[in-house]
Amino acid sequence: MRSFASDNNSGVHPLIMDALLKANEGHAVGYGDDNWTAAAVDKLKEVFGEGASPFFVFNGTGANSVALQAATRSFHSIICTQTAHIYVDECGAPARMTGCTVIAIPAEDGKLSAELIRPHLHNFGICHHAQPKAVYISQVSELGTVYTIEEVRAIANLLHAHDMYLHMDGARLANACAYLNCTMKELTADVGVDVLSFGGTKNGMMMGEAVISFRPEITENIHYFRKQSAQLASKMRYLSAQFIPYLENNLWLDNAANANRQAAKLAALLRQYPQIQFTQKVESNQLFFIMPSGAAKKLLEKYFFYYWNEEASEVRLVTSWDTTDEDIRLLEQALKEML
Question: For the whole model, what pTM was predicted?
């Protein structure tokens, strides 16, 4: 089945599958003291800079929870958007595991800004109030929009002036870099991101993420919160080995560029129909638009996808690293029949 529901539904890139098979040969020391993990750490430092300290975990919710635990205490607050993954889609795990108050700000395009954050930076030093300490942003945002380098820098500068941390959820960081034509370091370490959840499962990997700290005090804490959060893998090599081919020869970028390119093709196709109205800019591999409810229901009979707002007949389609021209052609054929 080919799907436009989520890039989580796509398969594993053959080079990454080969790396897993090679990691399966023989025995290796557990808990990260193996050659694959050492090589993956070196590769991540090449990409993000020598100041990067990577820690491999099982999944995105675990990565976000570990990162935010390492950056906060229970009397702190975490600021995010109302559509943020940690606020909507992680069953309250980060709030439960940090003990922090989560403050969710409305943002029509899914992106925070220094202007939106600034009014919430108050009551410092007053024991009756949760203390603002971290801001969470998703790159790409949950609405498919991309933070520019300048936008991330502006947020980081504001936070650092208040002794706060910036946490970036980089589940689709590769798609953002493909859109902006920049490196991952330029969009993270170079502009003041303090801790990053770096994922590849939406972009050709099988499983696992890396929590990457750029601050020594956060790094020290991650060692313990990763274990306490049940995110320390005994057979670590099966997580870490994937990052080696993923980061070699720009595989991460090639995969993301294809997903973005196919999304642009699909957007151009959809814009041919006056019945379809886009609700967000198409800047990555996610498309949000309103279509006639009857057509949406018919399309669901052939393709699995999610309603973003069923009442408004707003749907989300997502392209993947392995989406082909033929996939787009077949979807175009289905749309012609329905519209």
Answer: 0.97
